[in-house]
């Protein structure tokens, strides 16, 4: 078991722009941390620096309190699961699992016991004597997991381990990874570009953008209080609506609509306003108490079965509304915005603006948050 | 449909005959007596002297010194072929490993230097090579026969291309699994290269087996004569009467064909098995 401390770590590939800059993350023992961000944001680079596969340009990485900047990957006591599994094609599943242990001169009976244990955990028993090519994608994935588990490392590192699987298998493997990690309690650092995977797996999320950390926090905290417009649009599906607005006193102007917030506001003048598609409702006679409405001209509707996504514009700004599949539709609609669920971001920097004591308080703990949501 | 099939077969049969007839003729002719061959030319039917001709060729002491038999020459060729192929494989794998997996200064330059030597055939550097070998006193040794030919640009090039196609993650996984450079090479790279090794073994064995010019320069002692020289020698030296021993020359030629055929057959099946089974 281990803690991982990433302290002001940067990576600059020869002469280029920094791929990772000044990243700080403290990972507790047994914690499951997910690094999430768009393609090219430096997730893999950061993970590989922790693994020791990439040199660290500046800053320090500590595993269990020991600085490992110059320690070989094999001596960092970590195990890694690769996107393409990287199984040794000429070795049987059993040999694949045992290889790392063999190199560490683990006694034979100990190796056998650990391989058997991992095979049982991952239900790999019937495949132990097969070569990787004779396995399905999901089974190969499990072998890759097994190769990490048998080592009893102090940390697991995953680099998009599920992205080669089909959607259905990805969901079930996701559950399996979570279950396994809970069971063995090993500190984990997991890279993905899939925000849903990040939300479901993480104890804490690290959202990266352009090599910098945008936000670190528990999934629901990040979801309910994104620290920037980037996080707001990245986490959650459909992406949060972000529109330009003006604050005058306690009134908010969005295109043609004027909403009375009826309380203190974080700033005056131009802001970026965010609200989630699923927080919007069709305004009927009995709309929610603190709601005001926006006029929406509908462009098109996507039917998802459980809900329908209505895409339209407010003024000239695109807005998406998630409605239940039996909600009435028309070309021009009034949608209600729950005032407590509005997010304000600086129109220039995109950073979140705290806008009332109630809100700041709400986002501090998930428990409070759920209560407010009710 | 039916007619084209007959035509297809005809073409195939013609092609097969075209390729096998010379071999059949050589084999059949070798089982006749020299005199018969001299008077009647090449033969297509078996003669009655198969066993004694071959036995004679393999065991008779020949040459000026009477020290060299067909079997001895065959063994020499075999040593040359195998030593050649194995040495080239080992050397070129190691060279390619260094070029692909180790970041040292001028690695690319080193590769291109090796690669351009492809343009220089053995014949170009044969005199300096001879010079060096004779200076080292390696004339008339197996070492002198084999070692100067071992550096192989072709082999290095093929292995380099192959190593480059091995996914990077395998190396990384091995590093995390605690395999150092040596272990990675032996445990991962060599097994993965099996098909490549088989292919290069075929090519290089045949190449070494067929060497003529270099062994001729390097060996004056008849105990080191190879089959290729022996065949030549029969027609020049082993003249019993006025008639050259055509039958023996043919017999030796047939014998000279066998090992390469064997190597190709054995390694080809290995090679094809590897091709169809392995996925990197
Ligand atoms: N070996 C390298 N040399 C130079 N630049 C590199 C190298 N590897 C990555 N980069 C650059 O560093 C940045 C971060 O790359 P990285 O692979 O960490 O992205 P990522 O977040 O893992 O993306 P993805 O989701 O596509 O895997 C990219 O802009 C990439 O072009
Ligand atoms: Mg990546």
Distance between the termini of chain B: 41 Å
- Unreliable runs of chain B, pLDDT <50, ≥5 residues? none
The CATH architecture of the largest domain in chain A can be given as 3-Layer(aba) Sandwich
* CATH topology category name of the domain at 69-239 in chain B: MetI-like fold
- Strand ordering within the main sheet of chain A: 6-7-8-3-9-10
Strand proportion of chain B, as a percent range, falls in under 5%
What's the helical proportion of residues of chain A? 25-40%
Give structural notes.
The complex is a heterodimer of chains A (374) and B (280). By secondary structure, chain A is of the alpha+beta class. Chain A has two domains: 221 residues, Rossmann fold; 135 residues, OB fold (Dihydrolipoamide Acetyltransferase, E2P), CATH 2.40.50. Chain A has ten helices and 21 strands. In chain A, the strands form four sheets. Chain A has a six-stranded mixed beta sheet, sandwiched between helices. In chain A, a hairpin with a 2-residue loop joins strand 12 and strand 13. In chain A, helix 2 packs across helix 3, helix 2 runs parallel beside helix 4 and helix 3 packs across helix 4. Chain A is elongated and about 75 Å long. The two termini of chain A are 38 Å apart. The C terminus of chain A is likely disordered. In chain B, helix 3 packs across helix 14 and helix 4 packs across helix 8. The longest helix of chain B is centred in the N-terminal third of the chain and has 32 residues. Chain B has a domain of 171 residues: MetI-like fold (Orthogonal Bundle). By secondary structure, chain B is mainly alpha-helical. Classes of the chains: A alpha+beta (374), B mainly alpha (280). At the A-B interface, strand 6 and helix 2 of A face helix 9 and helix 10 of B. Magnesium ion (MG) binds next to helix 1 of chain A. The site of adenosine-5'-triphosphate has 12 residues of chain A, from helix 1.
């Amino acid at each position: 078991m281990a803690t991982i401390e990433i302290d002001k770590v940067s990576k600059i590939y020869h002469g280029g722009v920094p791929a990772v800059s000044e990243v700080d993350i403290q990972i507790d023992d047994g914690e499951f941390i997910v690094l999430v961000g768009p393609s090219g944001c430096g997730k893999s680079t950061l993970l590989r620096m922790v693994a020791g596969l990439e040199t660290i340009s500046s800053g320090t990485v500590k595993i269990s309190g020991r600085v490992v900047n110059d320690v070989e990957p094999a001596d960092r006591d970590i195990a890694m699961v690769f996107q393409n599994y990287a199984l040794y094609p000429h070795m049987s599943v059993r040999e694949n699992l045992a290889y790392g242990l063999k190199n560490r001169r683990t006694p034979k009976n100990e190796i056998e016991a650990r391989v058997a244990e991992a095979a049982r955990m991952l239900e790999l028993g019937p495949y132990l004597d097969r070569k990787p090519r004779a396995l399905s994608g999901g089974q190969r994935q499990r072998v890759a997991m097994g190769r990490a588990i048998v080592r009893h490392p102090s940390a697991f590192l995953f680099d998009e381990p599920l992205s080669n699987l089909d959607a259905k298998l990805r969901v079930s493997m996701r559950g399996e990874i979570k279950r396994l990690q809970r069971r063995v309690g090993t500190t984990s650092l997991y890279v993905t570009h899939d925000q849903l995977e990040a939300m479901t797996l993480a104890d804490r999320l690290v959202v990266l953008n352009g090599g910098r950390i945008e936000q670190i926090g528990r999934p629901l905290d990040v979801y309910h209080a994104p620290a920037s417009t980037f996080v707001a649009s990245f986490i959650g599906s459909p992406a949060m609506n972000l529109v330009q607005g003006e604050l005058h006193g306690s009134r908010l102007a969005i295109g043609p609509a004027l909403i009375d917030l009826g309380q203190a506001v974080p700033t005056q003048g131009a802001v970026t306003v965010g609200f989630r598609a699923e927080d919007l409702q069709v305004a009927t006679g009995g709309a929610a108490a603190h709601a005001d409405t926006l006029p929406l001209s509908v462009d098109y509707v996507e039917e998802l079965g459980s809900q329908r996504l209505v895409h339209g514009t407010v003024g000239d700004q695109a807005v998406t509304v998630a409605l239940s599949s039996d909600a009435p539709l028309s070309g021009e609609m009034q949608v209600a915005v729950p005032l407590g669920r509005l997010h304000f971001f600086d129109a220039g920097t995109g950073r979140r603006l705290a806008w009332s004591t109630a809100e700041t308080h709400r986002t501090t703990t998930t428990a409070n948050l759920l209560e407010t949501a009710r | 449909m039916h007619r084209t099939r007959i035509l297809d077969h005809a073409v195939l049969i013609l092609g097969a005959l075209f390729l096998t007839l010379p071999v059949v003729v050589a084999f059949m002719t070798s089982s006749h007596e020299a005199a018969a061959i001299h008077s009647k030319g090449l033969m297509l039917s078996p003669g009655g002297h198969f066993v004694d001709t071959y036995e004679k060729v393999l065991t008779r002491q020949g040459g000026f010194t009477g020290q060299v038999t067909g079997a001895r020459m065959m063994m020499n060729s075999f040593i040359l072929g195998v030593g050649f192929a194995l040495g080239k494989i080992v050397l070129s794998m190691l060279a390619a490993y260094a070029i692909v997996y180790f970041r040292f200064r001028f690695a690319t330059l080193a590769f291109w230097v090796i690669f351009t030597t492809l343009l220089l055939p053995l014949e170009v550097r044969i005199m300096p090579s001879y010079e060096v070998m004779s200076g080292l006193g390696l004339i008339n040794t197996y070492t002198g026969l084999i070692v100067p030919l071992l550096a192989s640009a072709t082999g290095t090039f093929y292995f380099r291309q192959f190593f480059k196609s091995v996914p990077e993650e395998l190396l990384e996984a091995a590093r995390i699994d605690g395999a150092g450079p040596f272990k990675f090479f032996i445990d991962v790279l060599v097994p993965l290269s099996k098909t490549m090794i088989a292919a290069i073994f075929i090519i290089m064995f045949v190449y070494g087996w067929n060497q003529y010019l270099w062994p001729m320069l390097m060996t004056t002692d008849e105990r080191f004569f190879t089959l290729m020289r022996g065949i030549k020698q029969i027609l020049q030296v082993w003249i019993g009467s006025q008639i050259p021993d055509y039958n023996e020359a043919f017999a030796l030629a047939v014998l000279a064909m066998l090992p390469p055929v064997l190597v190709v057959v054995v390694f080809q099946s290995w090679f094809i098995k590897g091709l169809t089974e392995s996925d990197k």
